[in-house]
Amino acid sequence: MLFCRLMPTVFLLSATMLVSPVLAAAPEPAHVLHHKGGPVEQAGSGRVDSEAYLRGIVAVRLGDDLEAAQAFRTALLADPANMDLLRQAFVRSVMVGDPQAVELARVVDKTPQDRSVISALVLGDDAAVRGAWPEAVQYYHRAGADPMARLIMPLLLAWCQQAQGHADEAIESLLHGPGSVLMPFYTLHAGLIAQVAGQSDRAESLFEQAQKVMPGYDMLLTRSHAAWLWTHGQQDKARAVIRKLVETDSILGLAGPALQANIARYPVTSAREGIARAYVLTAFLLRQQAREQAQQGPGGEGSALNLFQFNEAARLMLGFALAMDPTLVDARLMLAEIQDDEQHFAAARETLVRVPPQDPLAIVATLRLAVLETTNDHPADAIPLLQHLLEQAPGQIVIERALGNAYSQTKDWKAAIAAYTRAIDLANAQKSPDWTLLFLRGMAYHEAGDWAAAKTDTRAALAYAPDEPLLLNFLGYGMVEQHEDLAEAEQLLRKAHALDDQDAAITDSLGWVRVEQGDLAGGIPLLEKAAEQTPEDPEVNYHLGEAYWRVGRKAEAVDQWNVALGLHPSPADESLIRAALQKAGVPPTPPTGLTAPVVAPSATPVATPAPAQPAQEQGKHTP
């Protein structure tokens, strides 16, 4: 990606006040805070409101910045000289765009050693909101010493110039300033400034120039250019520009009709809105850097901390954006994505429900909310949202798929199958068959007890994706469950294992089919490896126990079955486990903990496996 290497020094944003390790650690007594060097006494009077302080810590852990800001401000009232509390109250207030952030910034700013890029930006934004543009420039210049702020400083200053009637100087500063990889976005904002300033012809030229250098499609650029074309009598071309944008993304495609209906509306009409967009751009850059780090693989605790810092910094930038423009849906969508990634479901939900319903992207926010509800064990709340979306946008594969997933979560297999079938029919009609839809319907058929239909769908999916381990494992393991053609099942599972030998579910399936065929010496090492990789999977523990029983290791078998029983197995698996314990003639005594006993090494020698990487969805035979 273009921006993956832009911000090696973004930590400077976080180092001053974004990341307080006290909020990631177990609560200490209320008079103690932490910093990177360990616990330190708070600088203050010592009159700490412990209840409010601890409430703030919990709120941060839950991703509820609004509650955290309120709690830390309450704690600060009891000890107004406590600079640590002041910083926490200040940062969390900024993150939610709370107006009280401005007053806290003024307090922070009174002491030179406590000033930061964040306080400078807050005070600069406040001056911009008040129309005090020279004052805003002064604060922005002070923030510009920070490497991250320096990236967007040309945008902030250019919009200040435009607001003071100096559009030409603003445009020139963006187009002919120091070279930057952000030049496509500087050019776009130069076009926006020209449009806001009434320089229509120049705006068109700059929009076209930006399109030539922009890496991929940009929503802001496309909507701005389409609005220009529409208002200048080129309606057909304007509609084509929007169509081309929404065709690049099936989810964005849901907003196609609304974007067309609002095609004449410029997304940026003032300097204040332009500054808000600059902050969204910064958050986007931070997210790109976080993704780049994630793609480089796990790097231990330090890597996790860096990811946390990137997300905190991105959320802060989005807080700046929403303070400048509370209706900015682009900021809310990105913020909800970060909150969901951090598993802060309630916070993400609150962010999405506050999207203005009249915004063209509201339908996208509703779909994301429905998916969020489904993936966080609230599918019953997702279903009416998705049904309403289907009324608004019938015939959309992405909505039917999401509805099928929600019904699957509620175990309404008939409704799930119907939704997946509609999605499959739509995909076929568009001549773009999707094996994942066939797989989803196949799993629903399997859960509904129709193995024949499940097998048909899975074989059809394999015709499109013959080397997909998920499909091979699902079909092979299903055949073992049904005790049909175990030789073919083993062939399928051997192929799946060759494609992904670190997936615990596939390893378990291959071990189990060998056990079922009587090859205990070959099957047990595979089952032991699967149990080591995913010790909290009841199905894997049941299989290993059964294999141990068949070779006479009966005490170990009972141990494995009792562990499996304590891991909340499905009703079908629980029946098998209880039957096995009854066969052994012992009462079930599931352990209180969830850790499986250490698996004894098999008597059969096995090759030492290569170091395993964590496999996604380990221990599950279906996703």
TrEMBL record:
It holds the Pfam family TPR_16. Residues 587-623 are annotated as: Disordered. Coiled coil: none annotated. InterPro entries: TPR-like_helical_dom_sf (IPR011990), TPR_rpt (IPR019734), Ycf3 (IPR050498). Residues 1-24 form the signal peptide. It comes from the Bacteria. Keywords: Repeat, Signal, TPR repeat. Residues 595-615 have a biased composition (Low complexity). TPR repeats lie at residues 397-430, 538-571. SUPFAM superfamilies: TPR-like. PANTHER family: TETRATRICOPEPTIDE REPEAT PROTEIN 6, UDP-N-ACETYLGLUCOSAMINE--PEPTIDE N-ACETYLGLUCOSAMINYLTRANSFERASE SPINDLY-RELATED. This is Tetratricopeptide repeat protein.
